[in-house]
Amino acid sequence: MPYRATVDDFNFLFDHVVDFNALRETEAFAEATDDVTRAIMSEAGKLCDEVLAPLQRGGDLHPARLENGVVRTSPGYDGGYKAIAEGGWVGMSADPEYGGMGLPMTLTSAVNEMMSGACLSLQLAPLMTQGQIEALEHHASDEIKAVYLPKLISGEWTGTMNLTEPQAGSDVGALSSKAEDNGDGTYSVSGQKIYISWGDNDFAGNICHLVLARLPGAPAGTKGISLFLVPKFLPDENGEPGPRNGVSVVSLEHKMGLHGSPTAVMQYDNATGWLVGKEQGGLAAMFTMMNNARLGVGGQGIGAAEGAYQKALEYALERKQGRAGGAGTIAEHADVRRMLMTMKADTFAARAIALSCAFAIDMGQASGTAEWKARAAFLTPIAKAFGTDTGIAVSEMGVQVHGGMGFIEETGAAQFCRDVRVTAIYEGTNGIQAMDLVARKMMDGGEAANLLLDEIEADAEAARESFPKMADAVWQATETLREATEWLTAQDDMNMRFAGAVPYLHAFARVLGGHLHLRAAMADKGGPREKLARFYIQRLLPQHVGLLAHAQAGCDDLFALTTDELAA
User: Which CATH number characterizes residue 500's domain?
Assistant: First the structure.
């Protein structure tokens, strides 16, 4: 069976888990009615099923390539991207003043995830553009907005993010790219950037690069960085692509996966650029884009998980082996069923967490309240890390379901593993997400975390009459998580926090997953979502115990071996 976009799953989550009606009651999103939402999801599903999914395999077998300085994209990608652009999918949440739809990020996140499941390599192009749109909306001058936003929102032009340099890696403050004021409102930008997703393509009229660079006399480190918009072609007086700028693609990376997505080494040689935001305010401006992208990358992981699950399920329902069950397929084997149930339950949990994060972003925008904004900030690293780790685990499990055939490239099962692996690395590694969670996101002493835990416990209390065992399990897990959170926030030594940051993040995700599965069960009593919730809460939620023991173990044993002993 071909890929099927999970439209019904999202509609259920909107109605019963993330309370989409609360968004409709706000002035900002009053137009996102039930009819509008369902129509959008239906059309997005058709795009994913009929246009994007057929491109998935070809992008892997026929990668993007560099010919005489020009990037040639995989067969069919031009038409696939055109369908995305013409459907208005790039500018779903963008400002209507510049041609966007102004729809909630909750809805955009759902569509992006479905596109990721259909064709992850191609979906990365509009995702990067969406992040650039948000950064420009918040930080660019009116002149820049007027020229660039309509073209980016329409999909005529695409956008990129340029942070990483060969010598810097995750240490953005170590960048060496430079910019000099030309005295006419423009700047001359020079330097080299690596790992630039969709750094060039052959279907957009212009490619617009957001580039971090340092002005003369700026202090070292992250505080001295500025952000510049550097287009491939300089816009003329009518805002149309004009002369070629000093921007070039040096090479494309040969990657483990995502072959259809060109990852470029970019060279800037006195390229003309425009300052975005304030001088030395570049990192703050770029983080606007990165936070958007981190949620989007979490969705990429979940989309890959969904694609891998559907392919594994199809194989399990067709492959006959042994005497298990009347149907005689491997889907009747207990261990295969364990894997399929785990894949489905964790994908649902990750999806619900990501939508909860998007919902908090929307409520923060609509209400302007600090509590919703803090909730969104707290959930972002969890949504990114758990979503991508779930994508990796589920796609790996999909290979296992296939058995020996999973190791054979022709089945396409391995592609999901290869494509999704980088999502735990780019837009901030998952380790960095966890460190952010236990450090910056807990500068409030754990207030945002505890407010969320209060909500989980209140929901569990409300569910006790219907599902006493499941509700008690979620409530008890929340209390254990609260105790670990109190221990964590009491640690002044950041290494004590960082040593257990990853297991703590995963434990929090496990409890959130139980909470959201329980909500789903309450809305589907006796139905498949109740059955899935029982599996998750009984078999996966208990993992939080070991994770939290790890999180509170301190750091002494991590450094017990010297570097020489590590190498012995």
Answer: 1.20.120
Structural domain ending residue among the three candidates 264, 280, 296: 280
If 0-12 CB within 10 Å is exposed, 13-18 middle and 19+ buried, where does residue 83 land?
middle
Residue 171 clears pLDDT 90, i.e. is over it: no
Residue position matching structure tokens 């750091």: 555
Domain end among 247, 265, 280: 280
Listed range (55-59, 286-290, 453-457, 463-467) with the worst mean pLDDT: 286-290
| Domain at 228, CATH number | 2.40.110.20
What is the number of structural domains in the chain? 2
Residues of the domain holding 476: 431-560
User: Does residue 515 form part of some domain?
Assistant: yes
Residue partners of 232: CB distance under 8 A and separation at least 6 = 200, 206, 207, 208, 209, 241, 244, 245, 247
Strand partners for 159:
208
Helix (H) or strand (E) holding 207: strand 206-214
User: How does DSSP classify residue 137?
Assistant: H
Q: In whole angstroms, how far apart are CA 254 and each of 207, 259, 418, 423? A: 22, 8, 12, 16
For residues 247 and 192, the answer to whether their CB atoms sit within 8 Å is: no
Catalytic machinery residues: 427
In a domain, 472, yes or no: yes
Q: What angle do CA 476, 461, 359 make, to 5 degrees?
A: 95
Residue 252 Cα to chain centre, angstroms: 23
Q: b vs e for 181-196, b when ≥16 Cβ sit within 10 Å of the residue's Cβ?
A: eeeeebbbbbbbbbbb
What pLDDT digit, counting tens, does each position of 180-213 carry? 999 999 999 999 999 999 999 999 999 999 999 9
pLDDT tens digits, one per residue of 486-514: 999 999 999 999 999 999 999 999 999 99
Check pLDDT > 80 for residue 353.
yes
How far is 507 from 517, CA to CA, in rounded Å?
15
15 falls within a domain: no
239 occurs within a structural domain: yes
Percent of the chain as helix, strand, coil, to the nearest 5: 60, 15, 25
